[in-house]
Amino acid sequence: MMCLTFDDGYGSNYVKTVLDCLRENNVQCTFFIIGKCLQAYPELWQQAIVDGNEICYHSMKHENLMTYTNQQILNDIAIWNSTAKEILGNDYAIPKIARLPGGNGNQSQRILKLFNNLNYNVIAWNADSYTGVIRQNGNRTTDQQIANYIINHATIGNISLQHFNQYDAPSVSIYTKTLKQKYKLGKISDALITPSSST
Fold it and tell me: What is the number of structural domains in the chain?
């Protein structure tokens, strides 16, 4: 199994492109969405849930949590959860899964302990199309280059990171069928489930 993940949530057209492709290929993934982006396109995120995807914490404003006090982080988590409940409905059980904005805090014992005390799994990634392709190629980046990068970096247990942008969104339709031939594509919450022994 490997997991496709998408961060932030800017650009309604790109969000729709990703959702349409995932639905067409019967693939569900994990979206780490900024709170203000949840508020901007509520109908799209509601559709994402209907399609079987999951939406998880990525802060309200995508600010560096290393600059926050513990109480500010706790407040941000609470406000994000309240926002998500308001938009996604009380029936949606928000996973205790988080991705820190920019990965800032991934090595901070203070921040990790704070999330762990709330029973959150803080999720990083193995392959990032921005640093792997877009930052190097700039506006010369093509969706095929992105797709090749995702495919070439695919391994069992891999977590890919993409964003809703003009480069990543159209790449999904290129690499999804290829990856499905070799891997089960699923959500982070699926990967975190420990198989029970059949005794």
Answer: 1
Q: What is the pTM of this model?
A: 0.95
Within a domain: 198:
no
- CB within 8 A of 159, min separation 6: which ones? 2, 3, 5, 123, 124, 125, 126, 127, 188, 191
Give the confidence band of 193 by pLDDT, cuts at 50, 70, 90.
confident
Within a domain: 87: yes
* CA 21 – CA 33 distance, rounded (Å): 18
Which structural domain, as residue segments, surrounds residue 112? 2-191
**CATH number, domain at 34?**
3.20.20.370
Q: What is the pLDDT of residues 45-99, one digit of tens each?
A: 999 999 999 999 999 999 999 999 999 999 999 999 999 999 999 999 999 999 9
Q: 121: Cβ–Cβ under 8 A, 6 or more apart, which residues?
A: 96, 97, 98, 188, 192
